[in-house]
Design a protein that fits this description.
By secondary structure, this protein is mainly β. The chain has a single domain, classed as outer membrane lipoprotein receptor (LolB), chain A (Clam). The longest helix is centred in the N-terminal third of the chain and has 10 residues.
Length: about 230
């Protein structure tokens, strides 16, 4: 899926931020190939922009994840509005078609996140606790790990998974330097293991610019690897 197309279509979901997402500096942009249980399963296209300065400074991350699941094809479109420099969530919305179709809109209001959720089970309003360091880390989305790249070893932040309605703490481990292969390229990378308070592990590889190169989530048997940096 074309990244320019996903910017336009995802922006339609959020008219209030469409002008901002269409402008500004591109922080990162690319494509991941996704494998589930070792088999090719789909792609993730994304772009992260920083459109303004001063009071208008913000980070916007658009993404489209397309997966071929045993139950059928699933497509997820997301838009995250985060506060720089650390990527704390301000607003978020996600729309999924296919298996487990759902629409979620989340907005921060003081010490709470107010969420509207629509699914086959109907509509519901939910509240989630908002902390000063709350990040959105959607399941099956690799580019959201960009906002954890500067988390220091031993430090924890609060994480919200809107589609699963889950909240947890995630802690960064000590980084290790590795050389990984993406296609024909060998890239020097910094690997960090993030661990949730329930014991789930997420391994993420970053390059020197802080771009996410690879994500491995053992509990989901999910591997996402950049393909736009190959060649």
């Amino acid at each position: 899926m074309n990244v320019r197309f996903l910017i336009a279509t995802t922006a339609l979901l959020a008219a209030g931020t469409s002008e901002l997402t269409a402008q500004g500096v591109v922080v990162d942009e690319g494509t991941f190939a996704i494998r589930l249980a070792g088999a090719p399963a789909g792609t993730e296209d994304f772009v992260i922009r920083r459109p303004g300065v001063g009071r208008e400074d913000a980070l916007f991350a658009n993404g489209v994840v397309a997966l071929n699941l045993p139950e059928g094809r699933q497509e997820m479109r997301s838009l995250l509005h985060a506060a720089p420099p650390n990527g704390v969530a301000v607003r978020y919305q996600v729309s999924t078609t296919g298996p487990e179709a759902i629409e979620v809109q989340v907005a921060r209001s003081n010490r709470r996140y107010l969420a509207t959720i629509r699914s086959e089970q109907g509509a519901e309003d939910r509240e989630f606790q908002a902390h000063a360091d709350t990040h959105v880390l959607e399941r099956h989305v690799a580019h959201h790990f960009y906002f954890l790249r500067d988390l220091r070893p031993g430090r924890s932040v609060h994480v919200l998974e809107p589609r699963t309605r889950a909240q947890s703490l995630i802690t960064a481990g000590e980084p290790t330097q590795e050389t990984i292969r993406l296609g024909v390229n060998e890239i020097r990378a910094r690997r960090i293991e993030f661990t949730t308070d329930s014991g789930e592990s997420r391994l993420v590889w970053y390059d020197r610019q802080g771009r996410v190169l690879r994500v491995w989530i053992p509990a989901l048997e999910l591997l996402a690897e950049r393909t736009d940096l190959v060649g």
